[in-house]
Design brief:
The structure holds three protein chains of three kinds.
Chain A (H helix, E strand, L loop, with lengths): L1 H13 L2 H5 L3 H7 L3 H30 L20 H23 L1 H7 L3 H5 L2 H13 L4 H29 L11 H16 L7
Helix pairs in contact in A: 1-9, 4-5, 4-8, 4-9, 5-6, 5-8, 8-9
Chain B lengths: L2 H6 L5 H8 L15 H5 L5 H25 L8 H23 L1 H7 L10 H9 L6 H31 L1 E2 L2 E2 L3 H5 L6 H4 L1 H18 L8
Antiparallel strand pairs in B: 1-2
Chain C lengths: L3 H45 L9 H8 E7 L5 E6 L2 E4 L9 H12 L9 E8 L2 E11 L4 E8 L6 E8 L13 H5 L17 E3 L13 E3 L5 H16 L2 H7 L1
Parallel strand pairs in C: 8-9
Antiparallel strand pairs in C: 1-2, 1-4, 2-3, 4-5, 5-6, 6-7
C-alpha cells in the first residue's frame, strides 16, 4: 500500500509530466488561457491516463515484453515483441479515447458537454503516450502500481496547467515587454515554476 | 511521382525555396506555431542527443510527408488519422531500432523520447495540413523545412545549455582551464530541465524583437 | 466515395505491410542490438579491473582475462562454475544472469514468498599473474538505474578498482559517478573491518575526513548529487552483502 502512495506522490510532484519531462506541452501552451478550460482539459487527461496506463500495462505484460506469451503456450518463451510497443500503445490510446468518449456521451451528457471537446485533443497529447512509455521503462510491478502512476501523472499535469492558467489570467494586466507577450512569457514562467517544483526532488520516498 | 510537373518548374524555383525556408525562420514550428515542444526540450542538455533527435525528426517527417502525399488519393477520409498514425509509428519504430543497433549510447540518452516523436504535433500537423493536399515533391520540401526549423531550435538550445552548463561543446572542453582557476564555475542550473524552457523563452524574445509582426496581443 | 469494403481491405493490407516491414527490420537489427548490450557489459567488467578495452577487442580481452565465472547463493554455496569455455557445474553461466531478476527473486525469497534461491554472479579475473574477483552491482539512482562493477584483490576484501555507470542521472551532478575521478577513490578501500564484520564502503556527503566513518570504509560524495551518491552507497551495500557468506567460507 505504501508503495502505491509513494508512486502517486512522486509522479505528481517529483516526476511531474510538465516540469520534469515537458510532456503534453503543446496543449498545455495552447489551452492555458483561462482556468476554466484548462481545468476541464486537466480532468480529461487524468481520466484518460488512469485508463490507458493500466490497459497498456496489461498489453505490455501479456503480449509485448520478452517471454510474455508463455500463457498461451510455453513454446513462445523466446518471442519478444517489444519493438511493436509504440504502435500498440498509440493504437490503444486512440481507441480508448474513442471508447471513453462514446461511454460518456451515452451515460452523462453534462460530463460529455464539459469534457467532450477535449477528448479528441488528448489522443495526440504526448503526456498520454509518455505515461505508457514511462510505465514500460520503469517496469512497474503490478497493475495497482501502474494505475497509481497513471493517476498521479494526470493529477500532476492538472496541477501544472491550472497553475499556469491562473498566472496567465493575472499577467494579462501586467506590462510585459511586447516581444515576450503570450508565448515567450509563458515559457519563462513555466521554467520558473519548474525550478520551484525541483525542491520536491529532495523528498525521500 | 510528379516528374512532369517538376520538369516544367525548376526543382528549386522560388516557390519551392520558400516552402523550405519559411518554416525555418518566420513560421518556425516551435517558436511561432508552438508545435512539437514536448519532445524537444528534454533532449537538449547536450548537443549530441539534440542533434540525433533533430535528425530523427527530419527523417520521420520527410518520409512520412512523402508517403502520405503519395497515398493521399487512396486514403479513405474516415480512417485517415489512423493511417497517418500508423505510418508515423512504423517510421519511428524503424528509427528507434536503427539507433539501438548503431548508436547505442545516444539511444540510451534519448530513452523514451524517440517514441514520443509519434505524438510530436509537428508531424501530425504537417501530414494533415500539407501532405494530404499536395504533391510529393512539395511535401518533401515542406517536411524537410519544418523538421529543420524544429532542429535549429533544438540545436541552439542545446548549444547554450551545454556551453554554459558543462563548459563543453559536443563533449569537447571549450572553456579553458584558466577560467576555472580564476573561480569560474559551470552553471549547474543550465543542466536542469526548467532552464530549457527559459532558454526557449529568450529565443522567442529575440526572434520577436527582430520581427515585429509576430508579436501577440497579450 | 469509399465503401466500407474498401476501407476494410485498405486497413488490413496496411496492417499486414507495416507488420511485415517492422518484423523484418527487428529481426535484421536484433543481432546488432544484442551485441551492443553485451559489449557494454563486457567493457564495464573489464574496466573495473583496470583493463582498458575498445569496441573491437573487448570480447577477446574478456576471454583472455576472465578465467572463471561462478554463481553463488546467499548461503555462500556455489551454484555453477563456468570455465574454459564450458559449464563445469550447475546450469547457468554467470554472464547470462540478469541481476535485476535475481534481486527480485531475493526479495521474494527473504519474505518467504518463494522457495527459489537467487544466484549472484562472480567473475574471476587473471591479470599479470594476479587474481582479482569482480562483482557486478545494480541499484537505483535519482532518475533511473545505476550499474557498477567492483574488482577485489585476492583477499576479497581490498578493492582493486571500480567503475560505475548510469542511464540518466543529472548531467554534471549525479552523472559524475561515471567519471574515473569518482571511481578511483575506491581503490584500496576495504569492505570488512578488522573483526571480519561486513561494513561495506560508504559514499559520504561532505567528505570522509569530516565524518566519523573510518577512512578505509568511505569515499567522498559528489557535490550536488546527494541522491545519486546515496544510491551508490545502497547499491554497494546491498549487492556486496549477497556475497558475505561466500567470502567468509573462502577464508
Amino acid at each position: 500500500m505504501q508503495d502505491l502512495v509513494n508512486i502517486f506522490v512522486k509522479s505528481i510532484f517529483i516526476d511531474n509530466m510538465i516540469f520534469a519531462y515537458f510532456l503534453g506541452m503543446c496543449s498545455y501552451l495552447a489551452v492555458s488561457k483561462t482556468v476554466k478550460t484548462s481545468a476541464g482539459l486537466g480532468i480529461a487527461v487524468i481520466f484518460v491516463l488512469a485508463i490507458t496506463v493500466p490497459v497498456d500495462y496489461l498489453i505490455n505484460k501479456y503480449l509485448l515484453s520478452a517471454g510474455a506469451l508463455t500463457w498461451i503456450s510455453p513454446q513462445f518463451a523466446d518471442v519478444d515483441l517489444t519493438f511493436l510497443s509504440f504502435i500498440m500503445f498509440i493504437a490503444i490510446i486512440a481507441s480508448m479515447v474513442q471508447l471513453v468518449e462514446m461511454v460518456i456521451e451515452k451515460f452523462s451528457s453534462s460530463l460529455y458537454n464539459s469534457l467532450g471537446i477535449f477528448l479528441p485533443l488528448i489522443a495526440v497529447n504526448c503526456a498520454i503516450l509518455g505515461g505508457s512509455l514511462f510505465m514500460q521503462e520503469r517496469e512497474y510491478e503490478s497493475l495497482a502500481q501502474a494505475t497509481s502512476f497513471g493517476l498521479g501523472s494526470g493529477v500532476g499535469w492538472l496541477l501544472a496547467i491550472v497553475g499556469i492558467a491562473a498566472i496567465r489570467e493575472k499577467i494579462r494586466y501586467s506590462n510585459v515587454p511586447a516581444p515576450l507577450r503570450g508565448l515567450g512569457i509563458t515559457f519563462i514562467i513555466t521554467g520558473l515554476m519548474g525550478i520551484a517544483f525541483m525542491m520536491f526532488m529532495g523528498i525521500k520516498l | 511521382m510528379s516528374t512532369e510537373k517538376v520538369k516544367r518548374e525548376p526543382l528549386f524555383s522560388t516557390k519551392y525555396r520558400k516552402l523550405l525556408t519559411i518554416p525555418i525562420g518566420k513560421n518556425n514550428p516551435i517558436t511561432v506555431q508552438v508545435l512539437g515542444v514536448c519532445s524537444a526540450l528534454a533532449v537538449t542538455v547536450k548537443l549530441e542527443p539534440a542533434f540525433v533527435m533533430a535528425l530523427s525528426v527530419v527523417v520521420v517527417l520527410t518520409i512520412a510527408n512523402v508517403l502520405i502525399s503519395l497515398l493521399r488519393n487512396g486514403i479513405p477520409p474516415r480512417i485517415r488519422i489512423i493511417v497517418q498514425l500508423v505510418v508515423i509509428a512504423a517510421l519511428v519504430i524503424l528509427v528507434d531500432q536503427v539507433l539501438k543497433a548503431f548508436a547505442y549510447d545516444v539511444s540510451k540518452q534519448l530513452s523514451v523520447f524517440v517514441g514520443l516523436i509519434i505524438t510530436n504535433c509537428i508531424i501530425m500537423g504537417r501530414l494533415e495540413a500539407f501532405a494530404m493536399a499536395n504533391k510529393p515533391w512539395d511535401s518533401f520540401l515542406d517536411g524537410l523545412g519544418n523538421a529543420a526549423g524544429y532542429g535549429v531550435i533544438l540545436i541552439i538550445v542545446a548549444f547554450f545549455r551545454e556551453l554554459l552548463g558543462s563548459g563543453t561543446i559536443w563533449g569537447i572542453q571549450v572553456i579553458p582551464q584558466g577560467f576555472y582557476d580564476f573561480g569560474y564555475k559551470d552553471n549547474g542550473l543550465m543542466i536542469l530541465p526548467p532552464m530549457a524552457l527559459i532558454v526557449v523563452g529568450v529565443i522567442i524574445w529575440v526572434q520577436r524583437s527582430r520581427n515585429k509582426e509576430l508579436i501577440e496581443e497579450n | 466515395m469509399f465503401s466500407n469494403r474498401y476501407i476494410f481491405i485498405y486497413s488490413s493490407v496496411m496492417v499486414i505491410i507495416v507488420a511485415a516491414i517492422l518484423s523484418a527490420a527487428a529481426s535484421f537489427l536484433k543481432p546488432y542490438q544484442e551485441r551492443n548490450i553485451r559489449e557494454e557489459k563486457v567493457r564495464n567488467i573489464l574496466a573495473s579491473a583496470d583493463i582498458p578495452s575498445t569496441k573491437a577487442d573487448a570480447e577477446d580481452l574478456f576471454q583472455m582475462h576472465i578465467v572463471k565465472e561462478i554463481v553463488v547463493d546467499l548461503k555462500g554455496d556455489v551454484l555453477s562454475v563456468y570455465e574454459n569455455g564450458k559449464l563445469q557445474q550447475g546450469e547457468v553461466r554467470a554472464f547470462e544472469i540478469n541481476l535485476r531478476k535475481e534481486q527480485k527473486i531475493k526479495e521474494a525469497y527473504l519474505l518467504n514468498e518463494s522457495q527459489k534461491a537467487p544466484g549472484f554472479p562472480l567473475y574471476v579475473c587473471e591479470k599479470e599473474g594476479k587474481t582479482y574477483y569482480i562483482i557486478p552491482l545494480r541499484g537505483k539512482g535519482l532518475w533511473g538505474p545505476l550499474y557498477g562493477n567492483i574488482a577485489f584483490d585476492d583477499d576479497m576484501n581490498t578493492i582493486f578498482g571500480a567503475n560505475f555507470s548510469h542511464d540518466k542521472e543529472t548531467p554534471g551532478l549525479g552523472s559524475e559517478i561515471a567519471t574515473s575521478e569518482f571511481a578511483d577513490q575506491f581503490e584500496g578501500k576495504t569492505i570488512f573491518d578488522s573483526d571480519m564484520n561486513f561494513v561495506s564502503v560508504k559514499v559520504v556527503k561532505g567528505g570522509v575526513a569530516n565524518s566519523n566513518i573510518n577512512i578505509s570504509h568511505g569515499v567522498d560524495a559528489i557535490s550536488g548529487g546527494t541522491i545519486t551518491s546515496n544510491g551508490v552507497t545502497d547499491m554497494i551495500e546491498d549487492c556486496l552483502g549477497n556475497y558475505v557468506e561466500y567470502i567468509k567460507k573462502q577464508k
